[in-house]
């Protein structure tokens, strides 16, 4: 209703608004030319495209608050955008809405090594945090593969993961406090500099709320001491099941590696075709990478144990990277897996789902059956340690009806994950891409309760409408609305 | 207004309600005799006392939901109670309200070792979880000192801590999913069996919400592998500052002990008077206990490093407990510290506040100044690793005006914690004891936002009214309303 009213407004209504925005952020902080707006029409998932009416680039909390306040008073919907690397369309703009971009909020405001905390603005790039403190022997743990280009603000919106989240947890475990601009333009503080805070954990609610509750403008992050020693083991197996069992056995032995990743035969060959690491045996059905970190003595001992567990599960060979160069080479293949899929097939679609680690073998078998049923090859690459799957469905968009079949196949994989007690998304978020699947996981009362909480912060529904929550449209309609092509930035997972 | 209306109702209004409750939980599940209600008139903080109108003892989620639904429909306020060991009056009943006690909800519903999860009812005692899985080499990490009598439901309400929370985090870090009865009687599920869940983290909001958002009736807990090796170091220092600096240096060296505790001279002597461990030198100004766990090789290496750091900071002696018996002896003194304070002085009051670890020395100095200003000795015992202080103010309740002065002193200590960037409560919660201090830490908009979230779950304000949130009364009024005596169960911290 509200949106409809707004859509019916004359386009020139924007001119007085733009003047107001310019007063707040300066003339160079407002983008309104159609060609310049093109930059902002999609995030990392290029299948959804929409130019915003206007882009505003604030520099401070106060500027964000002033812009949001105007939107609130004039009932203008808005979307926040970080670096635009998201993979669920969470930052997709609205045709008749404002896009608030944090690209000019790139200051590291405070480094407090003694308390192991860093305070940043939301536009700060993930990797900069580690760069700022690594000289002093610290690092920021959450490491999405896009970490050299994605922003902390976006990481918070999506509660981003990464290879090291198995041992160290996802973004929410590393965010101590947040200064927020909520959708009425108020500024509030949630969390704090000590982990024990009384009252409701609103910090936790905000992390992963996908832009529907406001904008974080100052973020207090926890940093960790760089481990004394790191090594990576690479083991190859003749069945994916054996690799999966090895993962279960390593955890069952009480070892928590920094990361554990599996790639299947299709991925291995794709990677060796493209980046030729020379480390991944082409005839292996699965390769398992295990990163261990900690004290030198601890890593040495765990390396011995992990190698033994790999051998007990029939690993043909276990090689170890102890120096940074070899480690990089081992990881190179894994990091290139998605890009490599693009070389195997005209198009591919990546799914993101979670299952309980112990169900790995069964779920992979069912994914294989689905692949055969639909007639599309699926390459499997996954964060095995925490059961986060990334099946890559290979297809050709030029074939009539292919995309619809692939989307149906992707949907079946998600439902499979939920059926095995898992989750719709491990790290890419729900956004506009998966909100139609939310009822697979949550019943009406669960969603209603979440909706109430959204309304506390966002009572007019102006902050990122249409994302995260299921809209009345069905998944089929979503598929029709979506023009899927290759996902750019796909080497960034 | 609502409460006033209820208070004006005739007492016999309860009879038809009691009938309804009896239909749900059986005759033996309802307590209404005044002498029997006495058991429930206070929790672990005996300064606040109030008998409820009626106690209901459900056994299942459905029974809880049915009872709560009746309260919702008939506008009856209610309070949930676990084992009643809480230390902030969070489970204090209402004169004209229902007390829902989880004492009959003591089933461990599921043990899933493969996925390292246990599902329990809320009345299950904390320690039972570890007992149920220790044979298989697992344990439940959060360990409040009351763990042999406190319940998991209460732990969730208060987001309980414990000695091992330095390394392993507090209760919220170990709760994966919750089945909840919310105040309208609906049953909802929050969180899940995999850590990555889309949508808002309502699980996180519920943990620590002190009974104001509903009752958790099924709780999925994460269990951890028992470490291969554990040892405790005991170091004694000639200044508290040196002990504090040692704690900072251990963390700065990248070592995260399972726990780090400091006791000052007054506590040491109290403990040796009462339990005579023989381990704590009476002339030491501070004793530091450091527990290390992990692989044997890791513990051995860290033991060497910690001992060296202690010596660098002037520790007179560093002794090590490698076997369970000696470990127990080392901890015995620490665990008896509060009870021992009771032997030093007719009465004592324990405060619970948090400061950034690095401010330890400064804050202790200021506490010492406050002690002198007010003329009451203060013994200091604290979870030094996470900056959680427990100053024990010694006084005599028979002296006119003493309690008022002690409460003022306690309040000044809390304000001191907040001023140094800390928090009002480390692990005991806000309840009815500290809600008047909430504005010291949160501004009006912060509290208002929390209030909105409360209203999502608890729109009629029937679940645990008067707790957690500041009420219009001032702290002075609270002091007058409160008849402080010794805090029973004080050996349970």
Automatic annotation (TrEMBL), chains A, B:
Needed co-factor(s): FAD
GO molecular function list: (S)-2-hydroxy-acid oxidase activity; FAD binding
Stored Pfam families: FAD-oxidase_C, FAD_binding_4
Gene3D superfamilies assigned to the protein according to its UniProt record, in alphabetical order: 3.30.465.10, 3.30.70.2740, Vanillyl-alcohol Oxidase, Chain A, domain 4
Keywords from the UniProt entry: FAD, Flavoprotein, Oxidoreductase
Residues of the FAD-binding PCMH-type domain: 48-226
GO cellular component: glycolate oxidase complex
Top-level taxon of origin: Bacteria
Keyword set includes Oxidoreductase: yes
Protein name: Glycolate oxidase, subunit GlcD
Organism from which the protein derives: Gloeothece verrucosa (strain PCC 7822)
């Amino acid at each position: 209703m509200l949106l409809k009213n707004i859509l019916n407004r004359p386009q020139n209504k924007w001119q007085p608004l733009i003047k107001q925005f310019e007063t707040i952020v300066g003339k160079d902080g407002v983008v309104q030319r159609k060609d310049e707006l093109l930059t902002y029409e999609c995030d990392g998932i290029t299948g959804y495209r929409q130019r915003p009416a206007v882009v505003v680039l604030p520099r401070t909390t106060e500027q964000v608050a002033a812009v949001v306040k105007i939107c609130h008073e004039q009932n203008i919907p808005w979307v926040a955008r970080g670096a635009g690397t998201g993979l669920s369309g969470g930052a997709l703009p609205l045709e008749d809405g404002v896009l608030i971009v944090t690209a000019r909020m790139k200051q590291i405001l405070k480094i407090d090594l003694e308390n192991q905390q860093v305070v940043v603005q939301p536009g700060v790039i993930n990797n900069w945090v580690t760069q700022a403190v690594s000289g002093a022997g610290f690092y920021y743990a959450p490491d999405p593969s896009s970490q050299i280009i994605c922003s902390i603000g976006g990481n918070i919106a999506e509660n981003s993961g990464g290879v090291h989240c198995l041992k160290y947890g996802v973004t929410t475990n590393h965010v101590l406090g947040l200064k927020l601009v909520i959708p009425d333009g108020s500024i509030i503080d949630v969390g704090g500099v000590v982990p024990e805070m009384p009252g409701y954990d609103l910090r936790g609610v905000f992390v992963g709320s996908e832009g529907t509750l406001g904008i974080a403008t100052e973020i207090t992050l926890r940093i960790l001491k760089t481990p004394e020693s790191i090594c990576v083991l690479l083991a190859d197996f003749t069945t994916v099941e054996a690799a999966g069992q090895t993962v279960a056995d390593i955890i069952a032995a009480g070892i928590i590696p920094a990361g554990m990743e599996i790639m299947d035969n299709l991925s291995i060959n794709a990677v060796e075709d493209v980046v030729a690491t020379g480390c991944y045996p082409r005839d292996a059905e699965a390769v398992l990478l295990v990163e261990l970190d900690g004290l030198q003595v601890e890593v040495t001992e765990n390396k011995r144990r992990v190698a033994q567990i790999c051998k007990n599960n029939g690993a043909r060979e276990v090689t170890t990277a102890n120096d940074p160069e070899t480690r990089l080479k081992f990881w190179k293949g894994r990091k290139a897996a998605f890009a490599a899929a693009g070389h195997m097939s005209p198009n591919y679609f990546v799914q993101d789902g979670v299952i309980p680690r112990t169900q790995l073998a069964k779920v992979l078998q069912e994914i294989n059956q689905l692949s055969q049923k639909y007639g599309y090859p699926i390459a499997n690459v996954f964060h095995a340690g925490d059961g986060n799957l990334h099946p890559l469905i290979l297809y050709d968009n030029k074939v009539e009806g292919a995309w619809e079949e692939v989307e149906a196949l992707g949907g079946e994989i998600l439902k499979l994950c939920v059926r095995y007690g898992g989750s719709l998304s491990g790290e890419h978020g729900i956004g506009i891409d998966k909100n139609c699947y939310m009822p697979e996981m949550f019943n009406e009362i669960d969603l209603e309760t979440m909706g109430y909480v959204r309304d506390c912060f966002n009572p007019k529904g102006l902050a990122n409408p249409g994302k995260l929550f299921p809209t009345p449209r069905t998944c089929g309609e979503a598929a029709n609305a979506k023009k899927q092509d290759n996902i750019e930035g796909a080497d960034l997972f």
